[in-house]
Amino acid sequence: MKAATEAPSQAKALLLLVCFGSIHSGVVLAVNMTIPKDLIRGRVGGEALLSVCYSSFSPDLPVIRWQLRREKSVTVVQSIGTDIIGTLRPEYRDRILVFENGTLLLHNLRLSDDGTYDVEISITDDSFTGEGSITLTVDESISRPYIDMESSSVLELSENIVLNCSHENGTRTTYRWFKGGKPLTNESRFLLSPDRKLLTITRVLMADEDIYSCTVENPVNNMTSMPIRLTVYRRSSIYIILSTGGIFLLVTLVTVCACWTPSKKPEHPTRTSLSRFYERSRHSRMNHADDVSPKTTQHNGINAVTSLYILQEKDPSTDDSSGNSVGSPTELDSPPRYTSLPSCFSASSSHQNH
After folding, report:
1. Which of 31, 82, 81, 25 shows the shortest CA–CA distance to 56?
2. Residue pLDDT, tens place only, 246-286
3. N-term to C-term CA, the chain
4. pTM of this prediction?
């Protein structure tokens, strides 16, 4: 009886060993996938490499499928090895490249590429499929920020002043404020908005006069604004400045009015004045000619009469017939001509000899 009962138990143990061996041999028929990095950051216009790696004992080519998670998953690409199956969606044409190990390369990134990508790699001879996921973030580069505020100067103890850190481009941005190169945090009079984009200073004091700047950051880059200076005036000094400026302006106006005189335009000589001038010049020359008379000199007891030269005036009949003429340049520039009278020296000398 004892020997009969032991035989069936040994047969059951042998069957269990065979089943276990068959199951153990089937475990290796699976795709083992590894993902080096499950978070990739990219920028608009750049590229992103979604890297994976798999291992299998099967010599067959793998079937690779990439999907983008949405409310309904969107198939990005499906391939056998590196050969793409079917037609790509319009938004992925000429932007997709699949490698032999299952890695996906995306070119010319867009903001719409942001999301989580699921990958599946399967081989026909393998019983299990390799699966994994990678998150891709796509951001736009930040342009240089600048600080907006109502005025660069403020009166002491005024209500408040707001500084706005503005920029043109950038996604998923964070902000930091600096005063005199040191970071600012929420304090009693320095209030930051929830996104830290706005800085409000309440009841400005003289101690708040300083240089302020802001920094904008996102996953792909960061930029710092040009520093600006906030000027704070005391209440007493502002009144002195205004009164001094008013007095200076008043004195300037009085001085200008006292020194100003209307300008007079010079009168140009008329044609009649020029005519009178030339007539007087000609008349004076004629009087000078009338004053010339012969002079007698005595030389060795002999009276001699010097030669007399008479100014010969030009005949008035040769002048221009026009009554309005003021005299031509030729008449004014030509020298006077003289004629010599016969000498009387020889006649007087012979008379004395007789």
Report:
1. 31
2. 777 877 887 877 776 666 555 554 455 555 655 665 655 55
3. 221
4. 0.56
Q: Is 198 exposed, middle or buried (0-12, 13-18, 19+ CB in 10 A)?
A: middle
**CA atoms in the 13 A half-sphere facing the CB of 128:** 14
Distance CA 106, CA 95 (A): 6
- Quickly tell me which residue has 């505020």 as its tokens: 149
Amino acid at 256: V
Which DSSP state fits 306? P
Tokens of 349: 């000398």
C-alpha distance from residue 115 to each of 39, 91, 226, 270 (Å): 10, 15, 34, 95
Q: Which of 140, 149, 163 is closest to 223 using CA atoms? A: 140
**Which residue, chain included where needed, has tokens 């499928």?**
65
Distance CA 91, CA 222 (A): 29
Tokens matching residue 350: 């012979």
Which range is least confidently modeled, 145-159, 201-215, 302-316? 302-316
